[in-house]
């Protein structure tokens, strides 16, 4: 039986809260390797990201339509890859050695594989596989009536959308609650859409809502694990949209924002814009 969207969001949130509660009991065992110093110099724990990652995988599994195993497999693959490769980057002993998309690509061109580059390649390749499964399940009738090159272009673009959204949410994880607020806004933009897009958006909303109090309270942070997994879930929702013009517009917006981040500081841009500054600061500790 398929859950309602409210049921999907509730289940996703409950899975995230349950994972966080279990990880709270294991904080000492996880050790200092799982802690980070935030922009205010406060120590925050990455268990919030682990919980969000686990919640995203559960959310992907319960949100898709029963009887369409391809869609379920695609959404679970995308979110799992986001969480696993994000975790690899979170556990990098030298996280500040190479930064930004260009930095990781330069290192890769020089024969050095950073955890960031491994994450980029790993999430991207899994995203393409996930897109093939998602688009076949959600647009089955349409995909059988189009030429193979068009189908391949659709899969590649949808894969880029999944991987790009995973990266984009991570780029916003620089202040308490910021990435989760962006995720919530993206959720709201897709929640009324029919089919898998709206269902996966509801799932992402449940994870974001469950993660927000601890993140805003500066007790935990998403890190790469939570941000990439949640972003991949949102990207999967967008990739499942039945209208190609919507998918390509979403991909264009994501790519432009990622490229802009290489030149412009999101934090500086938000600080200079009163409306964005107010939204960004909502709920955050003074």
UniProtKB/TrEMBL annotation:
Q: Per its UniProt entry, which superkingdom is the organism in?
A: Bacteria
* Protein name in UniProt: UDP-N-acetylmuramyl pentapeptide phosphotransferase/UDP-N-acetylglucosamine-1-phosphate transferase
């Amino acid at each position: 039986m398929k859950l309602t969207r409210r049921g999907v969001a509730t289940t996703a949130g409950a899975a995230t809260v349950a994972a966080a509660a279990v990880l709270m009991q294991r904080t000492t065992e996880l050790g200092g390797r799982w802690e980070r110093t935030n922009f205010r110099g406060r120590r925050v724990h990455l268990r919030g990201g682990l919980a969000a990652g686990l919640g995203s995988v559960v959310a992907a599994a319960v949100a898709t339509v029963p009887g369409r195993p391809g869609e379920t497999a695609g959404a679970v693959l995308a979110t799992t890859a986001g969480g696993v490769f994000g975790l690899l980057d979170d556990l990098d002993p030298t996280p500040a050695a190479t930064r930004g998309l260009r930095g990781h690509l330069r290192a890769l061109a020089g024969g050095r594989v950073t955890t960031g580059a491994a994450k980029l390649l790993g999430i991207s390749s899994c995203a393409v596989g996930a897109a093939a499964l998602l688009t076949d399940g959600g647009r089955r009738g349409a995909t059988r009536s189009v030429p193979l090159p068009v189908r391949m272009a659709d899969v590649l673009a949808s894969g880029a959308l999944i991987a790009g959204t995973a990266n984009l949410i991570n780029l916003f994880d620089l202040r308490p609650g910021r990435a989760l607020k962006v995720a919530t806004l993206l959720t709201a933009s897709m929640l009324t859409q029919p089919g898998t897009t709206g269902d996966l958006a509801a799932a992402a909303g449940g994870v974001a809502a469950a993660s927000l109090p601890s993140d805003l309270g500066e007790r935990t942070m998403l890190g790469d694990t939570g941000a990439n997994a949640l972003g991949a879930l949102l990207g999967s929702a967008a990739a499942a949209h039945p209208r190609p013009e919507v998918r390509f517009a979403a991909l264009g917006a994501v790519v432009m924002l990622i490229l802009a981040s290489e030149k412009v500081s999101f934090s500086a841009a938000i600080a200079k814009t009163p409306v964005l500054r107010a939204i960004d600061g909502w709920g955050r500790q003074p």
